[in-house]
Here is the input.
Amino acid sequence: MEVIPIYIAGGINGFESPAAEYQQRPLSLDELLVTHPSATFIGKVKGDSMTGIGIFDGDLVIVDRSATIKNGQVIVANLNGEFVCKMIDLKRRLLLSSNNEYPDVVINQYDDFSIEGVVTYSIRCHDEAINLCSR
Here is the structure.
Protein backbone atom coordinates (compact mmCIF):
# COMPACT_ATOMS: atom_id res chain seq x y z
CA MET A 1 0.00 0.00 0.00
CA GLU A 2 1.26 3.46 -0.84
CA VAL A 3 1.41 5.92 2.05
CA ILE A 4 -0.31 9.25 1.38
CA PRO A 5 1.31 12.20 3.18
CA ILE A 6 -0.99 14.68 4.90
CA TYR A 7 0.26 18.23 5.11
CA ILE A 8 -0.71 20.25 8.16
CA ALA A 9 -0.02 23.97 8.12
CA GLY A 10 -0.99 26.75 10.51
CA GLY A 11 -2.46 30.03 9.25
CA ILE A 12 -0.37 32.23 11.57
CA ASN A 13 2.67 34.17 10.31
CA GLY A 14 5.56 35.50 12.35
CA PHE A 15 6.42 32.53 14.56
CA GLU A 16 6.72 28.82 14.21
CA SER A 17 3.64 26.77 14.93
CA PRO A 18 3.85 24.41 17.92
CA ALA A 19 2.75 21.73 15.44
CA ALA A 20 5.72 22.39 13.12
CA GLU A 21 7.20 18.97 13.81
CA TYR A 22 3.98 17.42 12.49
CA GLN A 23 3.94 19.17 9.11
CA GLN A 24 4.18 15.97 7.14
CA ARG A 25 2.63 12.93 8.68
CA PRO A 26 2.07 9.74 6.73
CA LEU A 27 -1.39 8.21 6.84
CA SER A 28 -1.82 4.49 6.41
CA LEU A 29 -5.38 3.33 5.87
CA ASP A 30 -4.21 -0.14 6.86
CA GLU A 31 -3.17 1.15 10.28
CA LEU A 32 -6.33 3.22 10.63
CA LEU A 33 -8.94 0.65 9.52
CA VAL A 34 -7.41 -2.79 10.07
CA THR A 35 -6.91 -4.00 13.64
CA HIS A 36 -6.04 -7.61 12.83
CA PRO A 37 -4.32 -7.72 9.39
CA SER A 38 -3.99 -11.49 9.21
CA ALA A 39 -7.70 -11.95 9.99
CA THR A 40 -9.17 -9.17 7.85
CA PHE A 41 -10.62 -9.15 4.35
CA ILE A 42 -12.46 -6.63 2.18
CA GLY A 43 -15.69 -7.45 0.39
CA LYS A 44 -17.80 -5.56 -2.14
CA VAL A 45 -21.48 -5.17 -1.25
CA LYS A 46 -24.10 -6.16 -3.78
CA GLY A 47 -27.70 -5.21 -3.10
CA ASP A 48 -29.65 -2.74 -0.99
CA SER A 49 -30.72 -4.73 2.06
CA MET A 50 -28.48 -2.73 4.44
CA THR A 51 -29.20 0.82 3.28
CA GLY A 52 -30.94 1.69 6.55
CA ILE A 53 -27.60 1.66 8.35
CA GLY A 54 -25.66 3.30 5.53
CA ILE A 55 -24.25 0.31 3.62
CA PHE A 56 -25.11 0.62 -0.08
CA ASP A 57 -24.67 -1.37 -3.28
CA GLY A 58 -21.05 -1.11 -4.44
CA ASP A 59 -19.64 -0.17 -1.02
CA LEU A 60 -16.63 -1.95 0.36
CA VAL A 61 -16.84 -3.56 3.79
CA ILE A 62 -13.85 -4.35 5.97
CA VAL A 63 -14.48 -7.62 7.77
CA ASP A 64 -12.59 -8.83 10.85
CA ARG A 65 -12.65 -12.62 11.19
CA SER A 66 -11.09 -12.50 14.68
CA ALA A 67 -13.72 -10.25 16.30
CA THR A 68 -16.08 -11.73 18.86
CA ILE A 69 -19.61 -11.87 17.45
CA LYS A 70 -22.16 -9.91 19.49
CA ASN A 71 -25.92 -9.76 19.13
CA GLY A 72 -27.04 -7.04 16.69
CA GLN A 73 -23.69 -6.62 14.94
CA VAL A 74 -23.33 -6.32 11.20
CA ILE A 75 -21.65 -9.45 9.92
CA VAL A 76 -20.70 -11.20 6.72
CA ALA A 77 -21.88 -14.79 6.67
CA ASN A 78 -22.02 -17.67 4.26
CA LEU A 79 -25.58 -18.98 4.03
CA ASN A 80 -26.00 -22.02 1.81
CA GLY A 81 -23.04 -21.05 -0.35
CA GLU A 82 -23.94 -17.36 -0.69
CA PHE A 83 -22.17 -14.52 1.09
CA VAL A 84 -24.56 -12.15 2.85
CA CYS A 85 -24.09 -8.95 4.82
CA LYS A 86 -26.71 -8.72 7.57
CA MET A 87 -27.24 -7.95 11.24
CA ILE A 88 -27.20 -11.04 13.44
CA ASP A 89 -29.84 -11.88 16.03
CA LEU A 90 -28.10 -14.63 17.97
CA LYS A 91 -30.98 -15.26 20.36
CA ARG A 92 -33.60 -15.89 17.68
CA ARG A 93 -31.16 -17.26 15.05
CA LEU A 94 -32.08 -14.61 12.49
CA LEU A 95 -30.31 -12.57 9.86
CA LEU A 96 -31.80 -9.07 9.78
CA SER A 97 -31.81 -6.52 6.98
CA SER A 98 -31.93 -2.79 7.59
CA ASN A 99 -34.34 -2.28 4.71
CA ASN A 100 -38.03 -2.99 5.38
CA GLU A 101 -38.43 -4.47 1.89
CA TYR A 102 -36.49 -7.56 2.98
CA PRO A 103 -37.82 -10.12 5.46
CA ASP A 104 -35.79 -11.58 8.31
CA VAL A 105 -33.99 -14.79 7.37
CA VAL A 106 -34.29 -17.71 9.77
CA ILE A 107 -31.11 -19.74 10.19
CA ASN A 108 -32.41 -23.32 10.21
CA GLN A 109 -30.47 -26.27 11.56
CA TYR A 110 -30.31 -27.80 8.06
CA ASP A 111 -28.78 -24.61 6.56
CA ASP A 112 -25.12 -24.54 5.69
CA PHE A 113 -24.27 -21.46 7.74
CA SER A 114 -21.03 -19.89 8.93
CA ILE A 115 -20.18 -16.42 10.15
CA GLU A 116 -17.18 -15.11 8.22
CA GLY A 117 -16.58 -12.03 10.41
CA VAL A 118 -17.78 -8.71 11.80
CA VAL A 119 -18.08 -5.67 9.53
CA THR A 120 -15.89 -3.04 11.16
CA TYR A 121 -16.05 -0.33 8.46
CA SER A 122 -17.79 0.41 5.20
CA ILE A 123 -16.27 2.57 2.47
CA ARG A 124 -18.10 4.35 -0.34
CA CYS A 125 -16.63 5.93 -3.47
CA HIS A 126 -18.45 9.14 -4.34
CA ASP A 127 -16.86 9.71 -7.77
CA GLU A 128 -17.81 6.99 -10.24
CA ALA A 129 -15.13 8.25 -12.64
CA ILE A 130 -12.44 7.01 -10.25
CA ASN A 131 -14.33 4.20 -8.57
CA LEU A 132 -11.76 1.42 -8.36
CA CYS A 133 -14.44 -0.98 -7.18
CA SER A 134 -16.36 -0.90 -10.44
CA ARG A 135 -13.43 -2.25 -12.43
Notes: Residues 29 and 130 are 18 Å apart (CA to CA).
